[in-house]
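ok trying again, last paste got cut off:
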Amino acid sequence: MTMRRALLLMVLLAFAAPLFAQAPGAGQADTKWIWITSGFSMAIASAGCGIAQAKAVAAAAEAMGRNPGAAAAIRFALVLGLVLIESLALYTLVIIFAKVVA
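nice, full thing came through this time. structure:
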């Protein structure tokens, strides 16, 4: 990206930011959508976590079957990966809780 394009992009973004500003209290009437969208976002996050965990466990089981000597290292990597995958759902839940309660 040339310097001229980067400068043009920064100027456009700087001028576009006030266009998305909202008056105080303007979005108060549409609070019912928070409940619906939070349910969809939690469902999507849970589905993504479920698919990722299934793939991780399947890959770890296959790796341990191919190389039983490295089972301890594979198990450690599996548990660490599962913790990081599950944190996606937990972060989503915390964000949803903060948005719905607030």
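cool. Residues 34-102 form a domain with the F1FO ATP Synthase fold (CATH 1.20.20.10). The helical segments are 3-16, 32-66, 71-101.
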